[in-house]
Amino acid sequence: MMTLPLQLSPEVSAAKAAGAPVVALESTIITHGMPWPQNVDTARGVEAAVRAAGAVPATIAVMGGLIHIGLSDADLDRLGQARDAMKLSRADLAVCLATGRTGATTVAATMICADLAGIAVFATGGIGGVHRGAETSFDISADLLELARTPVTVVAAGAKAILDLPKTLEVLETHGVPVIAFGQDDFPAFWSRSSGLRAPLRLDTAEGIAASHLMRRRLGLAGGQLVANPIPHDAEISRADITPFIEAALAEAQAQGITAKAVTPFLLQRLFEATGGRSLTANIALVLNNAALAAAIAVAVAAG
Length: 304
Ligand code: PSU
Ligand code: MN
Known about the structure:
With 304 residues, the chain is an alpha/beta fold. It has helices spanning 10-18, 28-33, 38-52, 73-81, 93-99, 107-116, 134-137, 142-149, 165-174, 206-219, 239-255, 263-274, 278-303, and strands at residues 6-8, 22-25, 56-63, 66-69, 86-88, 103-105, 121-123, 153-156, 179-182, 201-203, 225-228. The protein has one domain (6-303): Indigoidine synthase domain (Indigoidine synthase fold, 3-Layer(aba) Sandwich), CATH 3.40.1790. The chain has 13 helices and 11 strands. Helix 6 runs parallel beside helix 8 and helix 10 (206-219) packs across helix 13. The protein binds pseudouridine-5'-monophosphate and manganese (II) ion. Pseudouridine-5'-monophosphate (PSU) binds at residues 26, 28-29, 32-33, 106-107, 124-126, 128, 141, 143, 261, 264, 268, 283, 287. Manganese (II) ion binds at residues 139, 141, 260.
């Protein structure tokens, strides 16, 4: 039998052996989603939030021909300052591994790696989705299709508000992905608690989300769940406040001809500059909040 190119950290390996709860964490948010040094500080804070809620964090990245499940402090530092890290989705994972390059995993690639390592729950900031203008650009994130095929529960603050959220929800529905708002009826919009759209499903407890994860497993259903966890009240940027900045950033992206993988990192960086750092402060708060909920779900999945 071929062995998988997986390198579990000692902590993750021990947790797996004991059947203890583990939460997967992505690394594109580190390399392409936030500036240094806030990216590394946030990654450490997210790991601490997972531990505080009773689970073991497993930050995932590709280095030296191996998928690392759980990074050392030195690896995290190096990744946080790397300028040449690939942004890995499903399409890129094997090339990165086979060539020995360094790569950061998006939601899609992190789901694949988590599943290979037997990790059921994953926390991020916001998933990729259908971009505005997708009717001409065809830019639809591979994150949506991964949610349709890989059985990992993903906790995010909805999809990023730079996207076309109604179309994103439609694609998720078409592909049979449960979109579960946590503790409210509305689908959250990353920096804001509400998108003005109702989420298809709502659950109010981590145990309920774990039970539906386990029920999908019993049914043999392919694909994961998207848990849409609203940003905490005190960290929220209202939709009215963030909308003009989003419009301006989108116009700049178009004027500069930014396409494909570069779009999301460009927009996040422009928003960071235009809001004087407020968008990043909110992003950090929502990721920490998602990490805590994901850990509670992982604890309940491990108990079930
Ligand atoms: N959440 C954040 N910041 C990010 C991301 C998520 O708070 O940068 C990343 C994830 O890795 C997600 C990616 O998969 O953004 C979406 O990229 P794209 O739109 O190119 O599919
Ligand atoms: Mn895209």
